[in-house]
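Reopening this ticket.

The earlier resolution said the output was attached, but the attachment link was broken on my side. Pasting everything inline this time so it's all in one place.
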Amino acid sequence: MKYNLSKIMLKAWEIFRKSNKQITFGESLHRAWTSAKAEPINTERIERAKKAAGIKESVNTWYGWKKLGFQVSHGSKCLFQVLLIHGSKGDGQTYLGSFFSQSQVEPIAVA
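Inline output:
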């Protein structure tokens, strides 16, 4: 498997800066590598769950939609949940990700 080393290094610097130098850069780099290695596993788990739920449209987490400029409509229930690896914490812990479809979101209103 080939990894984008530039992306990994950028992620390591992002983790290091967000920690306010509470962790070493070496630890940040370790966490970035863990995230890079977990990415294909998480993608495969999401695709498998999406296929099992019979969903054809694009899906994302609440936070993922927010980063794209959308908000999940009030009262929407997630379509499915998947156990994902949280690599940037450095310990390989897992979390339950809830996914919403594109039809459940709306653009964020600009004030």
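Reporter confirms the inline version is readable. The mean pLDDT is 91. The beta strands are 59-61, 70-72, 80-85, 94-101, 105-107.
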